[in-house]
Design goal:
α1 crosses α7 (218-230), α4 (91-111) packs parallel to α5 and α6 (188-200) runs parallel beside α8. β1 (10-13), α1 and β2 form a beta-alpha-beta unit. This protein has helices at 18-29, 61-71, 84-89, 91-111, 145-164, 188-200, 218-230, 250-260, 272-280, 288-294, 302-319, 325-329; strands spanning 10-13, 34-38, 53-55, 75-78, 116-122, 133-134, 167-173, 175-177, 202-205, 215-217, 240-242, 265-268, 284-285. It has twelve helices and 13 strands. 44% of the residues lie in helices and 15% in strands. It folds into two domains: 10-174 and 218-242, NAD(P)-binding Rossmann-like Domain (Rossmann fold), CATH 3.40.50.720; 177-214 and 245-283 and 300-327, UDP-galactose 4-epimerase, domain 1 (Alpha-Beta Complex). By secondary structure, the protein is an alpha/beta fold. Strands 3-2-1-4-5-7-11 form a seven-stranded parallel beta sheet, with helices on both faces. Bound molecules: serine (SER). The site of serine has 12 residues, from β8.
């Protein structure tokens, strides 16, 4: 199969998800031709201009192959996945979407001359017994099906790179926060402090106040993902990179929210299952390799994010009639 044309579009799988929406907007803003797919319809408020949108089930190998053969993308951002908390409610479905889905995308890419697959990995690849600061190469012992499938996705992609010359790159995202509702992650307590704080004036977090995991504001995450995709291959020393921004305790996030919204009440009622997942993740990530190899540098700290995010969440709450946040988060 000859390589695809240099002007071929970029394909985004899982485009209706939390990362997909902002990634599409970023790519469209940079004038990059893009094609989106997801099983879900295009979100009504997406405001993405004229991005072609296709319903594709990544677990269906034939459908993925036929779609990639038709679109002939040069690059695929493979985002489609079920996150950690929701994944524990149905590990079998999570395996199929995350693991079989990634295999199907890599196979279709290999067969149809796609140059590059960009993968979104996660802090959930790590497991208990970590050092205080976690580098790229510590042992990976995830406790969730989401984490297991992301480790396997990292390894599978690196295999396709070595074996077939498919340019496979990925970042391990911290918990991501943005003005859109996340889809069942264990890091969602952070966003809900803002979202429910603005929507109903209070939020009870499902974690302890001293819970500390790496977090990142979505604009830094998107810029990081796209910068990695566009970095010269010869600068890269690995396939998958840790990236980091800030690591606040949960009560420090609450304090940041309350500095801007003093009337918001935030309290804590840890849920044992989700707390155990949070306690198994890194407290602080070391992203030295990402900074050195392709210049990753986040722009937002916690309070900078809070200032930027609060007006956006206000607009989201005003524009949507979403179900109670707790319903969305429940595993
Ligand atoms: N935000 C993700 C989750 O909580 C972590 O990658 O599942």
């Amino acid at each position: 199969m000859p390589p695809v044309d240099a002007n071929a579009p970029t394909l985004v799988t899982g485009a209706a998800g939390q990362v997909g929406q902002d990634l599409l907007r970023h790519l469209v803003g940079r004038g990059i031709p893009v094609v989106a797919c997801d099983l879900r319809p295009e979100p009504p408020a997406a405001d993405l201009g004229h991005v072609p949108w296709h319903a594709v089930d990544v677990t269906d190998a034939e459908a993925v192959e036929a779609f990639v053969a038709k679109v002939r993308p040069r690059r695929i951002f493979h985002l489609a996945a079920i996150l950690s908390a929701r994944g524990e409610a149905n590990p079998q479905r999570t395996y199929t979407v995350n693991q079989t889905g990634t295999y199907n995308v890599l196979e279709a890419a290999r067969r149809h001359g796609v140059e590059q697959v960009v993968f979104t990995s996660t802090i959930a690849v790590f497991g208990p017994g970590l050092p205080e600061v976690v580098g790229d190469d510590v042992p990976l012992h995830p406790t969730t099906m989401y984490g297991v499938t992301k480790v396997a996705g990292e390894l599978l992609g690196a295999y396709y790179d070595r074996r077939y010359g498919l340019d496979f790159r990925g970042v391990r995202f911290p918990g991501l926060i943005s003005a859109s509702l996340p889809g069942g992650g264990t890091s969602d307590y952070a966003l809900f402090m803002y979202y429910d704080g603005i929507r109903v004036g209070h939020y009870t977090a499902f974690c302890r106040p001293d819970t500390k995991i790496p977090l990142m504001y979505m604009p830094d995450a998107i810029r990081g993902l796209v910068d990695l995709a566009l970095a010269p291959k010869e600068r890269l020393t690995r396939n998958v990179y840790n990236i980091a921004a800030f690591s606040p305790r949960a009560d420090e996030i609450a304090a940041s929210v309350r500095r801007l919204l003093p009337d918001v009440r935030i309290d804590f009622a840890p849920d044992p299952q989700r707390q155990a997942i949070l306690d198994s993740w890194p407290r602080v990530l070391d992203d030295t390799a990402a900074r050195r190899d392709w210049g990753f540098a986040p722009a937002f700290d916690l309070d900078g994010m809070t200032r930027d995010l609060v007006p956006k969440i206000r607009a989201l709450v005003a524009a949507t009639n979403e179900p109670a946040a707790a319903d969305v988060a429940a595993p």
